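Exam prep: given the inputs below (a chain plus pyridoxal-5'-phosphate), describe the expected output before reading on.
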Amino acid sequence: MTLPPSGLPRDEVLAKLQELRAGDLAARGGRTFAYVYDPARPDIDELGHEVYASYLDVNGLDPTVFPSLLAMENDVVDIARRHLGSTTAVGSFTSGGTESIILAVKAARDLAGIEEPQVVLPVTAHAAFQKACHYLGLEAVLVDVDPTTFRAVPSAVEAAITDRTVLLVASAASYAHGVVDPVEEIAALGLARGIPVHVDGCIGGWLLPYFRRLGIDVPAFDLSVPGVTSISVDLHKYAYAPKGASVVLYADPAMRRKQYYATADWTGYTMINATVQSTKSGGPLAAAWAVLQAVGDDGYLELADKTLRATRRLVEGVGKVEGLRVLGEPEMALVAVASDEVDVFVLCDEMNARGWYVQPQLGYRGLPASMHLTLTASSDAVVDDLLVDLAVCVEASRGVVAGDEGLLAAVKDLNPDELGDDVLATLLPLAGIEPGDGLPDRMAAINTLLEAMPMRLRERLLTEFLGLLFTPGNDAG
Ligand SMILES: Cc1ncc(COP(=O)(O)O)c(C=O)c1O
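Solution:
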C-alpha cells in the first residue's frame, strides 16, 4: 500500500476498516474461548472505550505533568494490592502480563546482582518468563510438574535451586490447565533461602479471590503468603478492562526500586521510567480505572458467579461426552480437554467449523495435547450449546487421522541447527502453510506436524512464518 496522495474521507476510511475486520475472530458474543475476555456487559465495554479514547493523547511518560494519571495509577495499585492480600505493597501499572513479568524478573535480577542468574520455572509457568529471561540475560531452569494434577512439585523446585537462583515462580493459575500451584510451599522454599518468589496471577489474580468467595477451595496464593515477594495481575483479563492493562506488585519497595530504570547520561531530560515503555498513552490506565469503578465489588462477584457456573457446566458436560476428559481439576475458568479416542486437533477444527474458537495445545514433555477453553462471564449464555456441538464434533472426529506419516517421520529427525533460513522457508509449504493465502481452515495436520518436530525446529519454523506474514503483500489472511 502507498500513502493516499490526499487524505480519504472519514466514511471511506471507516468502511475500509470494517472490511478488514470482517476476517477477525469475534471479540464479543461468547463463542471465542481464547484471547478475549467478554463480560457480556455492553455498558462496561462502552464506558471503557469512551474513557480509553478520551485519554489517548495523554502521555504517561512523566507523572508530574499529568497528575490525573498518577492519581489513577495509585488508585489502581491500591485496589489491586488490597484484592491480593496487602495494604502496604507497592507496584506499577503496565501494558500487560508480559510486561509485568519482564519487570518482576528484572527486579529480581538486579536485586540479586550476581553473575549468570537463574530463574526456576515449572514448565506450566507462562512462556513470558522465558521471554523475560531471554531479553534480560538470565537462564530459565525448567522443572517438570505433576503429570496428573499439572501443579508444580515443590520438591522438584527445591532440587532445581542453586546458588545462582534469583527467583522462584508459581502460577495462580496456570494458563494451560487452570490450576493453582502450591504457592505456600514454594514461597516457604524461597523464604528459607532468601530467594524472591513471584506469583503469576496474570490470569487468575483477579478472579480467584471471587471464586473463593463463591465457595471454591482456592489455596492461598497472594501477598499474604509469607515468602511471596511479587505478584502480577492483568486487568485486561478477568477485570474486563480494555487491552493494555496489568499490575505488578512488590511486597517490599526495595524490590520495586530495582524495577525502575534511570539515566541522566545523555543530552536530554533525565530519563526515569517505572516500566518498559517510556511514552505511553494514558488510555489503558484511565479505562482500567473507570471499569474498576463502574463494575465495583458486587459487579465482579456477579461476573465471577456467571463464569463459575459456566465452567462447572462445561466440566460436568465434558465428563459426560464419551471419549473426552478434563485435564487436572481446574480451580479457574480455564479448561484443558484431552482425549484418548479422538485427535484433539481434529476436534478443534470441527469445533471451529461450527463457529466456536477453541485453542489447540500441543503435547509437551509427556503431557497430553489438549483443547483449551478460556471461559468468561459471556460463556454462561452459550456453554450448553457448546456442549451439544462438542458431542457432535467428537463423533465427527472419530477415526480421522491428521498428518502425513512420511512427513511426520521426516521432521522428527531434522536438526534445526543444520538448516539455513532459506531451507526453513521451503519447509513451510510442505507443512501446508502458504503465507500469501493465510492459514488453512483445517489446522490439524499442521498442528500434528508441529508437535512431531523438535521444539527448536518448531520455534524456527514459526519465526520464519511470522516474518513472512509481516511482509507487506503476504497478509491476505
Ligand atoms: C498465566 C499468564 N501469565 C502471563 C500471561 C501473559 O499476559 P499478556 O498476554 O497480557 O502479556 C498470560 C496470558 O494469557 C497468562 O495466562
